[in-house]
Amino acid sequence: MTRPDESRAGSAPQAGFGPQAAGSAPQAAGGRAMARALLVFAALGLIWATYWFFCLRPVESTDDAYVAGNQVRIAPKTSGTVMEILTDNTETVAAGQIVVRLDPADALLALNKAESELGLAVRRIFSQKAQLSRLEAIIEARERELALVQNEYRRRLNLEAGASVTVEEVERYSNQAAVAEANLKAARLELEAAARELGAGETAEHPQVALAAARVKETWLALRRCEIQSPAAGRTARRTVQVGAQVTPATPLLAVVPLDEIWVEANFKE
Question: Based on CB atoms within 10 Å of each CB, which residue in 112, 152, 153, 164 is the most buried?
């Protein structure tokens, strides 16, 4: 016969196999996932704090900042009247691009005049060279004339006394020899002066020709300077020139800001 206490004891479930044991496993897994998430967030927070402390903490910010750069001033190198403006503020220009044109009429007239003066100078030099050749021929003729007169004078002096030679004839040949000698001397002096004025160099090296050639170069350069070019590439700014304005080499026209030489100017609060 079984006792009641023993039957209840035998019918009780064993530990670890009831409903409470079945629900404890998911709770343990959720706790481990929460712990891992907390560790991940803590690690990310530590990384962000380290980055902010070493990188972001010294950085200052301001809304009072401006972009600045070097300005290349453009001014004419010759006086004239502005005929055309080929750019405006904030436009991009290349190095060597024409930005302003001046009226080239006066410069063109000056160039034509200088070229004419150069031609006249060259003609004068050729004329002087021809004059030298003419003087050399004259000297040669007067040398022969002097030699002929001197021979006649010596021949009459060597004639014996009593010959058909009068004193007056001897004196006449003597005077002719003196005149021929004086003419020869004058021709030589004239040749020396002409040669000194002409010089010994080439035609292009003569001072008159060189001066006229320099004048041609000067007027040609003034004509080229009627087209004002940008000295650098960049953006145009501060344009003050207007069409029809009279400008001189001291008149500022506009400025060019090179884009490869710009910076930021910022004002920070203390």
Answer: 153
107 contact partners, CB below 8 Å, separation of at least 6: 78, 80, 219, 222, 223, 225, 226
Q: Are strands 92-93 and 80-85 parallel, antiparallel or unpaired?
A: unpaired
Integer CA distances (angstroms), 244 to 54, 81, 86, 107, in order: 61, 6, 14, 17
pLDDT of residue 6: 45
The 10s digit of each residue's pLDDT in 85-135 is: 999 998 999 999 999 999 999 999 999 999 999 999 999 888 888 888 888
Helix (H, G, I), strand (E, B) or coil at 260: coil
Categorise residue 99: left if φ over 0, alpha if ψ from -120 to 50, beta otherwise: alpha
- Partners of 82 in the beta sheet? 102
CB atoms within 10 A of CB 3: 8
Do strands 98-102 and 92-93 pair parallel, antiparallel, or not at all (unpaired)? unpaired
Q: In what order do the strands lie in the sheet with 234-237?
A: 72-74, 254-257, 234-237, 92-93
